[in-house]
Design brief:
The complex is a heterodimer of chains A (about 300) and B (about 280).
Chain A: E1 3-4, H1 5-19, E2 23-27, H2 31-34, H3 37-42, E3 47-49, H4 54-66, E4 70-76, H5 77-81, H6 84-93, E5 99-103, H7 121-126, E6 133-134, H8 139-150, E7 156-159, E8 164-165, E9 181-184, E10 189-193, H9 198-210, E11 215-219, E12 222-224, H10 228-238, E13 240-248, H11 253-264, E14 268-274, H12 283-289, H13 294-307
Parallel strand pairs in A: 2-3, 2-4, 4-5, 5-7, 6-7, 10-11, 10-13, 13-14
Antiparallel strand pairs in A: 1-8, 6-12, 9-11
Helix pairs in contact in A: 1-8, 4-6, 9-13, 10-11
Chain B: H1 3-27, H2 32-49, E1 64-67, H3 73-83, H4 123-136, E2 143-148, H5 155-166, E3 172-178, E4 181-182, E5 185-186, H6 187-190, H7 196-202, E6 206-211, H8 215-227, E7 233-238, H9 261-273
Helix pairs in contact in B: 1-2, 1-3, 1-9, 2-3, 2-8, 4-5
Classes of the chains: A alpha/beta (about 300), B alpha/beta (about 280).
Chain lengths: ~300, ~280
Amino acid sequence: MPKASRAAFGEAILELAETYPNLVVVDADLSHSTMTRKFSEKFPARHFNVGIAESNMVGIGAGLALAGKIPFICSFACFVVNRFEQVRMSVAYNEAPVRIVGTHVGIGIGEDGYSQMGLEDIALIRTLPNIPIIQPADEIETKQAVAFLVNQNRPAYLRLTRQNLDDVNPPNYRFQFGKGVVLHEGRDVALLATGGVVSNALKAAKELAKEGVSTTVINIHSIKPLDEDLILDAAATCERVVTIEDHSVNGGLGGAVAELLSERRPTKMKRIGMSVFGESGSPEALYQKYGFSAAGIKKSVLEFVQAS
Amino acid sequence: MTDYKIHELKKIARELRVDIINMLLEAGSGHPGGSLSAIDMLTCLYFHQMRHNPKDPNWPQRDRLILSKGHGVPAVYACLAKAGYFPNEELMTLRKIDSRLQGHPDRVKLPGIEASTGSLGQGLSIAIGLALASKLDGDAFRVYCMLGDGESQAGQIWEGLMSAPKFKLDTLVTILDYNKGQIDGPTNEIMNLEPIKDKVTAFNWHLIEIDGHNFEQILSALDEAQRTKGRPTFILAHTIKGKGVSFMEGQIGWHGKAPNREQAELAVKEILAAEI
């Protein structure tokens, strides 16, 4: 059943709140969108709405964490992560175990347009030495990632979509932090995808098979730390690697994989991501225009395979 | 408050002023102006007001001091050493390689520091988060946040000032070390905070205005803050940058410059000679 990862997050938080009395949530006037509304209604004393003041939210999260609470601070990815100086100092350098939740990532948000799209957040957080980045690809992965984060006494960044996501993982799925998930195995090209574009990568793989191109598809839910061994193995097997992400083409998953491969195993590579500002349009129209649809991914991969 | 207690606190503040000068001399850099303007109030906090235990720096019920104006940290280091968090000799490692005494506060490296700060304008939000946690735990501890006047130009400070009264954080006390100067010049020329009293009052804080070098007033304000229920307290403390060293007092040039040996000797002599 397709579900947005933000919705899965909201449900997970509500379930975990019973077990973890120290779990608290901070919002900045977007609790209807970050899906923490039900938590706020059920646990009003443990929910703090600071209004449209995200810098203050980041610092408040740090203070709550330093006093032993388990804070999830929630807003659109661009609004919370782009308070980067506050994240860098109040959260990261303080080693304050704040769980930063950025929703509405990428052009997948659709009609609201660029101002609301988180397209730089992975690149920003990756520069900080101690904040892992998790981007789940479906409901089951999201819920397990949230449960994992509750038990981690350290800062973390969770990147969530506005749009519904198809299930890509089996019902018996077990989330393993720092590990990629091989969804499909092949020999010509490895597709490394993260978050909202994983299901399109899988669909593209099926289409590519019809064209005689055999693909490995790996869901990279942990962008930091990266599953280096798995990616190096895939590069060794396929000798071609394509990264796919609804994020800037610079500094995100593509950047992380390029850094890894250029140092450890130089491999022919293509990065699919955003290299311009986003814009308004339906999510489907935007994915089609910018090459994140299954057909778009297939086209890019074919061109890459044929040229390399 | 007995006269004896106040006399003891003044003696401690005098010692700590000497420590600040000696640390900065040894470090060769740092911020004497804002350390000396804050030290009287920090002395009252660490040696009278706050419940804390140097032998158990992570005691969950301890009161917290967040030095949002992180560049004034030599004053806090002097307090922590005197209180017994670490040996006095360690003060001389300030700003040196591998030291726990970083140029700006680092809570991960040094027990006793409650928040790493120094990127200005962020400490009040952290203090609010701590106070919210305290409230959830039945007012488990009190939180003191010291702001600089320069950093109070940052928008995030006003986000914090707007939010603390909403949450009725009566365990939170914000102290403005209003020394009227910042690196580029007098605060009222760079970006005037005035009328600061009206602004903070309009934001629904309980406001107390004091002379931040008058121990009776400092202690009475801290006491009044503790008795104030239902909203946070803002202590507007008028101070003098470089207080206690005549050639530094009110001089912007001493915001971020260490004394040389000759200047340090002169300063220490003057501090020790002052009547208390």
